[in-house]
Amino acid sequence: MIIDTHLHLIYRDWLRYPWLKDVPALDADFTYERYAREARRLGISAVLHMEVDVDAVDMAAETEMVQSISHKPGNMIRGVIAACRPEEEDFPAYLEQQRGNRFVKGFRRVLHVVPDDVSEGALFRENIKRLSGTGLTFDLCMLPHQIDKAKALVDLAPDVTFILDHCGVPDIKGNGYDVWKDGISEIARRDNVRVKISGIPAYGDLENWTLDDMKPYFEHVIAAFGFDRAVWGSDWPVCTLGGGLSTWVATTQALLSGVSLEDRQALFADNAKRLWRLS
Question: pTM here?
Answer without folding.
Answer: 0.97
